[in-house]
Amino acid sequence: MNAPQRNWPLLTLLILTGINLFNYLDRQVLPAVLTPLKDELKLSDGELGWVATAFMLGYFLTSPFFGYLGDRFPRKWLIAAGVAVWSAGTVLSGTAHGFWSLVMFRVLVGLGEASYGTISPGWIADLYSPERRNNALSIFFTAIPVGSALGYIVGGAVAAHYGWRSAFWWAGLPGFVLAVVLLFLKEPERGASEAVGAQAATPAEKQGYLSLLGRPLYVLVVLGYVAQTFTLGGFAFWAPTFLHRVHGMDLQTADHFFGLSLVVTGLVATLLGGFISTAWHKRNPAAYAWVLGLSAAAAAPAGCAAFLLQDAFLARVMMVIAMFLLFLPSGPVNTLILETVPVTMRASAMAASIFSIHLFGDLWSPQLVGVLSDRMGLKDAVLVLPCALVFAAVFWLWLAGKMQAGARTEG
Fold it and tell me: Which CATH architecture has domain 7-189+210-410?
């Protein structure tokens, strides 16, 4: 690693985290403006769900491509191009005049975000040693709740005063500036922060993604992540609308409440989960996995209560608790994705994870809830979301047991 990069890991982390914040801000503007967008474009709930699915198609279908490139070519140019593309897709979303044009622009947003989401965590892993990596990644992933919350809050506020189209324009334009800023960063060599003799990919593993299936710990991490992402994607898309329809909240108030709750719980839970698991990991090598499994096991009943309670205040309290638990493993889950594979396959591992969690998770959970809502009402349709967390808990507790047994064997 060259001297400037060695002296500036924190600055690099902060810049990448800031870009990640806009990544999720752009993504969550759509849920914040669902009602006025639906009214003007005359879309059904099922079609709104398909619009969310379109973003995921662009996101997860291109992630393996960027994963392959990210393990072999300079990363900042790939990431900068992705930031520019997703920003263009966001701005163009504000010009949509029908279902298919909106779908096309959301696919473009997903395509651009795939580059950043796939490659940037491996860059951060190469900046920080294993003892500091989980904390660094936890800081990076605080951008998920903060950016998402800003998407709801800013998107809802701008839409209320200037219309839903302006919300997309205001969200997308800063990305073009961020893409230029990124070009001034210097990236480390792959595996630069690892100890001498760190595991590298074998020639067979370099041949493709299928080699990841031979790593059972990685597979269990991703299986649990699929189930959790199914829940989180549907929850993030429909929660403000749920509060509006079921509990009679004004839409802007619902957006504001959900956005504020998201930023507070997500920020606190992501940092708390990251720093606690790092401290626990010093005494227990399976600590990251235990944080994953226990948080999912607790989030399932909390989510059910949030959707079933008749009292609006209690329902919102349980919604906040469920959100906190959903964000608690944000740092450890991504640390495990990177650390259960060779250092030269990190971008590929992240890409395979992104591909899997979206193909089998939130690619279809918003659309499924929308279709079920058209048939049975939104209040009953959303119950499918916390039920999926049971599967996440099973896979992640299984992972924790395997890692715990492996630690005893090595000991």
Answer: Up-down Bundle (1.20)
Amino acid 141 reads F
From the number of C-beta atoms within 10 Å of its C-beta (0-12, 13-18, 19+), residue 195 rates as: exposed
Amino acid sitting at position 23: N
Please state the length of the chain: 411
CA pair distance 184, 387, nearest whole angstrom: 45
d(CA 351, CA 293): 22
d(CA 391, CA 195): 35
CA–CA gap between residue 281 and residue 335 (Å, rounded)? 12
Print pLDDT tens along the chain (411 aa): 444 445 578 888 888 888 888 888 887 788 788 888 888 888 887 788 788 778 877 887 888 888 888 777 888 888 888 889 989 998 998 888 888 988 889 888 888 888 888 888 888 888 888 888 888 888 888 888 788 778 877 888 888 888 888 888 888 888 888 888 888 887 777 666 665 444 554 554 455 678 898 899 999 999 999 999 999 989 888 888 888 888 888 877 887 788 788 788 988 999 999 999 999 998 999 999 999 999 999 999 999 999 999 999 999 999 999 999 999 999 899 999 998 988 888 888 988 998 899 889 887 888 899 889 988 988 889 999 999 999 999 999 999 999 998 766 765
Nearest CA to 95 among 199, 38, 165, 26? 165
pTM over 0.70? The answer is: yes
